[in-house]
């Protein structure tokens, strides 16, 4: 069978598959699912690599019926299967027949029953398994602790019972078994993990194992309590974010008392990740909102959930480029991205005329503020090691976007220092990425960074290297402390002069003037640090090459940035003649000395 025939056969065992993305499948059986390369002919639900099907992403489609693994066996390159948020019921499919799968996502369905102990035997490549929020019962399958590559396991929100087996895999980085009926001690292998990033969630289990069944009973009892009555005061956010009063009240009441399904749907937040607590607009609207700033597209507001978690809601008016279904698909695609240097999208709210995107609030604010307005933060300026760390993190995040979103010409599209947020340890989190496909074309061309690139100015088009130009400009901003926008539209004489042109003109061909462009706020540095700064300056300038052919490729830029030497732990990177700014700091690290 051809790949087309296999997929059509697979689809025939599903119910509810004639609408939405699957409706298109097989309409023209001569059109193969993959075009060649990584491009799918059949829409986002089919992931292609090297011209053949490597993944099926069938999420939020109301699907039920049978997942026909025997048919899927005929796709030799299939690595990812996702059926998140559908209506599948009954026992788990016999996934081990697809023993080359790397990622399996079955969360938010109605799968039930015990999973056989050997259900995952032999799946030696399996890295991610999400079974959250189904109705599975019985013990956690004994084959799971034997999988050598398992990295991310989510079993939360089921009725798994018995004890947690001892997971010894070093690869395991995320583990969530919260909200089950598990009991007994937490295995030593899990408690004693050395990797600092290990995310381990047993939810109430710890309490349950200490206090016994009583706690579990209490928890169940709590679940059955009548919903809280909501008397949310009209919130600033509701008004500021342009939600009509009726939307606001329906978000507060209907979603709570179960009435008015239509109104509820109209005000429901759509969650794009299954690893986050759910909340609704009413929860966001309860606290009064603080405006963080107004960007090109609208304003961003900070508000807090009843749990205390602080969230940011960004309002977009110019986001009508695509229809509802395509918009939702794109949001889900963004929601699947997962990288330490990307700010995850948590949820969105869709209305024809406007959209709200919800993300976590990042406490130290943007790189732009740290570079240009640090005095207002009452903090010392960023030092060289921190700037280097930020550049490395941004490059990694951007590299990941390139890898994960190969079909986008500019996978970020709006890279600039106000879209780089800094967490507590001053690690960068890139935000506002991958939005070009959903922003109105005209607004995108007017407002987005990609469209300020030299190639757009010269030839009216952006290319695969446009984000690299933006990265180059961002690095120059980091190194010089100069705000790129100040170099644009500065009157006639300098109209074609951007930050890169200015830097080039000052440093000269032989780079002898480099000292004059480096931001003095980084402090005086020793020779090693200066050599690395110079290398970074060179990389940035090559990223900014006007001639796209001469500009660095993403992979090369990443490798070169990654190769820069971090100041050694035991090395005092400041020279003895510290500048004023340098004097204000302790000798290194800085970040931990700040208090916000
Ligand atoms: N999740 C967040 N946590 C903390 N600060 C944020 C967050 N999102 C945005 N901000 C800050 O809020 C301000 C307004 O952000 P917004 O994204 O609305 O505009 P912008 O980034 O300046 O411009 P643009 O709309 O072109 O992206 C910026 O200073 C931004 O750094």
UniProtKB/TrEMBL annotation:
Cell compartment(s), UniProt: Membrane
Reaction equation(s) it catalyzes: L-threonyl-[protein] + ATP = O-phospho-L-threonyl-[protein] + ADP + H(+); L-seryl-[protein] + ATP = O-phospho-L-seryl-[protein] + ADP + H(+)
InterPro entries for the chain: Kinase-like_dom_sf, Leu-rich_rpt, LRR_dom_sf, PRK1-6/SRF4-like, Prot_kinase_dom, Ser-Thr/Tyr_kinase_cat_dom
The name this protein goes by in its record: non-specific serine/threonine protein kinase
Species for this entry: Corchorus olitorius
Residue ranges annotated for the Protein kinase domain, each copy included: 286-574
Top EC class for this record: transferase
Keywords: ATP-binding, Kinase, Leucine-rich repeat, Membrane, Nucleotide-binding, Phosphoprotein, Receptor, Repeat, Signal, Transferase, Transmembrane, Transmembrane helix
Domain of life: Eukaryota
Main location: membrane
Keyword ATP-binding: yes
Region (Disordered): 222-260, 566-596
Molecular functions (GO terms): ATP binding; protein serine/threonine kinase activity
SUPFAM superfamilies to which the protein is assigned, alphabetical: L domain-like (SSF52058), Protein kinase-like (PK-like) (SSF56112)
One Gene Ontology cellular component: membrane
Membrane topology: Single-pass membrane protein
Parts of the chain that traverse the membrane: 198-218
E.C. number(s) listed in UniProt: 2.7.11.1
Lineage of producing organism: Eukaryota, Viridiplantae, Streptophyta, Embryophyta, Tracheophyta
Sequence similarity: Belongs to the protein kinase superfamily. Ser/Thr protein kinase family.
């Amino acid at each position: 069978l051809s790949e087309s025939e296999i997929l059509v056969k697979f689809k025939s065992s599903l119910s509810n598959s004639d609408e939405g993305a699957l409706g298109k499948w097989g309409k023209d059986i001569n059109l193969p699912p993959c075009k060649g390369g990584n491009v799918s002919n059949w829409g986002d639900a089919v992931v292609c690599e090297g011209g053949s099907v490597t993944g099926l992403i069938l999420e939020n489609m109301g699907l039920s019926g049978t997942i026909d693994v025997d048919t899927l066996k005929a796709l030799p390159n299939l690595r990812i299967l996702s059926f998140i948020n559908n209506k599948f019921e009954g026992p788990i499919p016999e996934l081990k027949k697809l023993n080359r799968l790397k990622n399996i996502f079955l969360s938010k369905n109605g799968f039930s029953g015990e999973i056989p102990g050997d259900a995952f035997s032999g799946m030696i490549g399996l890295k991610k398994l999400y079974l959250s929020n189904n109705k599975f019962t019985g013990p956690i399958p004994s084959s799971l602790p034997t999988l050598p590559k398992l990295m991310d396991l989510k079993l939360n929100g089921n009725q798994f019972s018995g004890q947690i087996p001892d997971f010894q895999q070093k690869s395991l980085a995320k583990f969530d078994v919260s909200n089950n009926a598990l009991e007994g001690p937490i295995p030593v292998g899990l408690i004693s993990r050395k990797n600092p990033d290990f995310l381990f969630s047993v939810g109430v289990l710890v309490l349950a194992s200490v206090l016994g069944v009583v706690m579990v009973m209490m928890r169940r009892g709590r679940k059955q309590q009548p919903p809280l009555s909501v008397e949310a005061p009209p919130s600033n956010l509701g008004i500021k974010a342009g939600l009509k009063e009726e939307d606001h009240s329906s978000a507060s009441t209907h979603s709570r008392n179960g009435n008015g399904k239509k109104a509820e749907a109209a005000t429901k937040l759509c969650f794009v990740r299954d690893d986050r607590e759910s909340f609704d607009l009413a929860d966001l609207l309860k606290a009064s909102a603080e405006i963080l700033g107004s960007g090109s597209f609208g304003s961003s507001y900070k508000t807090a959930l009843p749990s205390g978690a602080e969230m940011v809601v960004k309002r977009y008016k110019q986001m009508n480029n695509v229809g509802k279904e395509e918009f939702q698909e794109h949001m889900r695609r963004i929601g699947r991205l997962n990288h330490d240097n990307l700010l995850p999208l948590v949820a969105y709210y869709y209305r024809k005329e406007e959209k709200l995107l919800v993300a976590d609030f990042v406490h130290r604010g943007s790189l732009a503020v740290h570079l240009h307005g640090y005095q207002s933060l009452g903090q010392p300026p960023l030092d060289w090691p921190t700037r280097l760390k930020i550049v490395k993190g941004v490059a990694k995040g951007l590299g990941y976007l390139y890898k994960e979103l190969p079909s986008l010409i500019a996978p970020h599209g709006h890279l600039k220092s106000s879209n780089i947020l800094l967490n507590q340890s001053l690690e960068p989190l890139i935000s506002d990425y991958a939005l070009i496909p959903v922003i109105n074309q005209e607004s995108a061309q007017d407002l987005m960074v990609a469209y300020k690139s030299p190639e757009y100015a010269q030839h009216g088009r952006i290319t695969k290297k446009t984000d690299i130009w933006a990265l180059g400009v961002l690095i120059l901003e980091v190194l010089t402390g100069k705000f790129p926008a100040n170099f644009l539209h500065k009157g006639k004489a300098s109209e074609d002069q951007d930050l890169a042109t200015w830097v080039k003109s000052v440093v000269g061909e032989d780079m002898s003037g480099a000292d004059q462009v480096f931001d003095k706020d980084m402090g005086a540095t020793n020779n090693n640090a200066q050599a690395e700064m110079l290398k970074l300056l060179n990389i940035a300038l090559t990223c900014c090459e006007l001639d796209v052919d001469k500009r660095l490729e993403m992979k090369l830029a990443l490798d070169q940035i990654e190769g820069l030497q971090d100041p050694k732990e035991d090395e005092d990177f400041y020279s003895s003649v510290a500048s004023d700014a340098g004097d204000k700091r302790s000798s290194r690290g800085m970040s931990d000395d700040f208090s916000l």
